[in-house]
């Protein structure tokens, strides 16, 4: 599961990516810096994990992670081969969700590709390219499916009819995610970029992180209209803080009037966007947060930890992280009847602590 970071050149994608992953992607003040996408891993901030690890006395603490990819090359005309051409489209298709970074900062030293800061227009430019790319995909699929329909099979006929409606929707400039999904379209929607869930990331200056500015407010309004998620971050502030020792970083944050640069919220929002929830495993050796798709069973969760545990699954002892922390230990939580035994089909909930019993 990975989140693709997209946006026009010079909006701060690489700066965001570097901060998320403290990795090697380079930020430079000119377009087309990053050609091949850089995969990177961000730890999901989770206060529950720390509390649980302290309660259990775990030696090692392992957070859940989200994979991000920095995808450059999106400019006006990209769907027709401008900029880095169509290459970026292939990279976005491989992602499960999209974080769309928009420039909400004014800085005359940083070139804007269209010569002005207007995040709503930027979003429209990017979305138009993505919709055009999808329209192209759907038209090619219609041709293919129509040929198959001539052979007299029923399935391609139903799909061709359904695709015609989707084509109209895209041709009107609307993203596939707002089209009512239907059975015959399931496979086609899986190949479309604008069917992926999206999160808008308003990148503001350090002075605007506390209250936002007119640009970020416009992005928030647009996100609300689309029913999309939105977070406000300051990539510049986050990058500057990374250079400072902990105490000074906290003072700096206090000076600009916030507790965080928005990155923690961003990572958590991306995690939710992927449809992930967290369960924990905890012993003296290691306390760990595991990402799992919402709706997964205990047996599936066991498989996240180890394939042997899934194969030999017997049952899971399950407690809520807060009950365990309040009881002070797993044994005391058990004594207080806060731990229950669940079978393979139990649907795991966010915040569950699992102790899996299995046959080897
Ligand atoms: P990308 O092309 O979208 O990957 O953008 P980069 O991350 O390479 O950033 C382009 C330029 O904008 C760099 O010089 C960054 O330092 C600068 N930049 C990024 N975020 C901010 C910000 O929040 N405020 C200001 N003033 N500059 C920023």
Automatic annotation (TrEMBL):
GO cellular component: cytoplasm
Single GO MF descriptor: ATP hydrolysis activity
Essential cofactor(s): Mg(2+)
OBG-type G domain: residues covered: 1-253
Residues passing through the membrane, by range: none
A Pfam match: MMR_HSR1
Keywords attached to this entry: ATP-binding, Magnesium, Metal-binding, Nucleotide-binding
Keyword Acetylation attributed: no
Residues covered by the TGS domain: 275-358
Residues that coordinate or bind ATP: 10-15
ATP-binding among keywords: yes
Similarity comment: family membership: Belongs to the TRAFAC class OBG-HflX-like GTPase superfamily. OBG GTPase family. YchF/OLA1 subfamily.
Summary of the function given for this chain in its UniProt record: ATPase that binds to both the 70S ribosome and the 50S ribosomal subunit in a nucleotide-independent manner.
Name of the protein in its database record: Ribosome-binding ATPase YchF
Species classification: Bacteria, Bacillati, Actinomycetota, Rubrobacteria, Rubrobacterales
Gene: ychF
